[in-house]
Write a structure and sequence with these properties.
The complex is a heterodimer of chains A (335) and B (128).
Chain A: H1 2-24, H2 30-90, H3 106-120, H4 124-137, H5 143-154, H6 162-172, H7 179-188, H8 192-198, H9 212-216, H10 219-228, H11 238-299, H12 302-307, H13 309-334
Chain B: H1 2-8, H2 32-42, H3 46-54, H4 61-69, H5 85-94, H6 98-103, H7 107-123
Classes of the chains: A mainly alpha (335), B mainly alpha (128).
Pfam families (chain A): Med4
Biased composition (Low complexity) (chain A): 176-187
Family (chain A): Belongs to the Mediator complex subunit 4 family.
Chain lengths: 335, 128
């Protein structure tokens, strides 16, 4: 492009120079003037061409830039696509177990946690004691270990007061550099015999399993005892057995009571019967006596009295029997 | 003690109902559920395991079958009745292994179990 425009310039310059020459010689030629004009026109055209050329160049540059940016964009997209794919492939997918799963009821879970809290975790007193011993065992110069231990020792129980920890510190670390801390800790910690009153759980041992005495007092042990007594525990319920015995006892008593009542009733009936008999007897005797009296008065004969004496003697005898019976009756009443 | 239960209950049958129904036969006043719950939790005690081993129970095929049967305690709805879930389930699992059943005779293993589980009971809730 340079040579192309240079030629035009040269031609213009030459034409111009020739024209100037001719003008200076006072002999201007129209031919040269025409030549200059065409050269100038050519140059103008050439310049226009240069302009389009430059524009094209700019455009090309722009396009190149665009293409590189697009290239980078494509590359980025591709790399992101690749990484995304990798991510997707490597993502941990929740694998649902093939075993049957069970719905967990929130309240049930909480109540279970509350129930097993006593048996699955030692009381906080033991934990505190453990934490403080751990701390005291940590060598002091090794500050990094201590820093590592301290949070683990104190975080589990936020309610834990600093007193027990401090109370152990003076004995565990006699060479404690800061004497001030030792002094304050001595002031804040209680003597051991007093702290036992405040925390009755402090001396307790914890086992995460049932102890022997519990096993020995359980259902299996009681069944073993039954077996040793020669009782088949199957279908045998000591409580029901106890109840059954108590019931039997009660029934027996009730029966006795009933019998007693019946006996008393019989006795009463017998007495009533006797009473009735006696009354009848009395009535009959009175009637007889009346009849006798009537007969005697009707007869009015003293000689007959001797004949009639036996009847009068008979009631007398009866009377005797009667008193005898009466006596018996009295005896019965006393019973 | 436990071998009595194996004699009385056929282990092929399903685990006892929860809660025990009234018409279920009782053993000394206790339902099968109660007795088996008690026994499976007794297994949490390492000394008791040692005692069972010393009674030569852990080598009896019937007892081993009973231990396999007791595994229903590791699944709902029975799971939530375990008061000592950690050691109970661990021992129940270990007892399924022939090797463990033999080794529990040794007091060393008992001691190690005791130490491990005591430590675990203190440490388990501290882990992040």
């Amino acid at each position: 492009m340079d040579t192309y425009i240079d030629n035009r310039f040269e031609r213009l310059e030459k034409a111009l120079a020739n024209l100037i020459d001719s003008v200076t010689k006072y002999h201007p030629s129209t031919v040269q003037a025409e030549e200059l004009k065409t050269a100038d026109d050519e140059l103008c055209k050439g310049l226009e061409e240069v302009q389009t050329h430059q524009n094209n160049h700019l455009k090309i540059q722009q396009l190149r830039q665009l293409s590189t940016s697009l290239d980078s964009q494509i590359r980025e997209t591709l790399t992101s696509l690749a990484t995304t794919r990798k991510d997707i492939v490597t993502t941990q997918v929740t694998v649902y177990p093939s075993e049957p799963n069970y719905p967990i009821v929130y309240e049930e879970l909480l109540s279970y946690a509350r129930r097993i809290s006593k048996t699955s975790m030692p009381p906080s007193a033991i934990l505190n004691a453990l934490a403080s011993t751990q701390e005291s065992q940590t060598p002091l110069p090794d500050s990094q270990t201590q820093a590592g231990m301290t949070p683990s020792a104190q975080t589990p129980n936020p309610t834990q007061s600093p007193a027990p920890v401090n109370g152990v510190l003076p004995s565990g670390l006699p060479d404690l550099s800061s004497t001030q801390q030792t002094q304050t800790s001595q002031l804040t910690s209680l003597p051991e015999n007093m702290s036992q009153f405040l925390n009755p759980l402090s001396g307790q041992l914890f086992f995460p399993w049932p102890l022997e005495d519990k096993i020995r007092s359980g259902a299996l042990a009681s069944n073993q005892i039954l077996l040793e007594q020669g009782i088949d525990p199957k279908g045998y319920d000591p409580v029901a057995e106890e109840e059954r015995k108590a019931k039997e006892e009660e029934e027996r008593k009730e029966k006795e009571e009933k019998e007693k009542q019946e006996r008393a009733e019989r006795e009463r009936q017998r007495r009533e019967e006797l009473e009735r008999l006696r009354k009848e007897d009395l009535l009959r005797r009175e009637k007889e006596q009346a009849a006798f009296r009537r007969a005697s008065t009707a007869a009015g004969i003293s000689g007959d009295a001797a004949v009639n004496a036996p009847p009068s003697a008979r009631p007398e005898k009866k009377q005797f029997q009667f008193t005898n019976l009466d006596d018996l009756d009295d005896d019965d009443d006393e019973d | 003690m436990a071998s009595d239960a194996t004699r009385d209950v056929s282990m092929g049958s399903s685990p006892p109902p929860v809660p025990a129904s009234d018409d279920e036969p009782k053993y000394g006043g206790y339902s099968r559920f109660e007795i088996e719950l008690e026994f499976v939790q007794s297994l949490a005690n390492p000394y008791y395991l040692n005692h069972l081993a010393s009674q030569k129970l852990l080598t009896q095929p019937a007892f081993i079958a009973y231990l396999a049967y007791l595994q229903y305690w590791s699944k709902p709805p029975y799971l939530k009745y375990l008061t000592y879930p950690g050691p109970t389930l661990r021992h129940l699992e270990l007892l399924q292994q022939e090797r463990f059943r033999q080794d529990i005779m040794s007091p060393d293993l008992v001691q190690r179990l005791v130490e491990d589980e005591m430590k675990a009971s203190v440490q388990w809730h501290r882990e992040p």
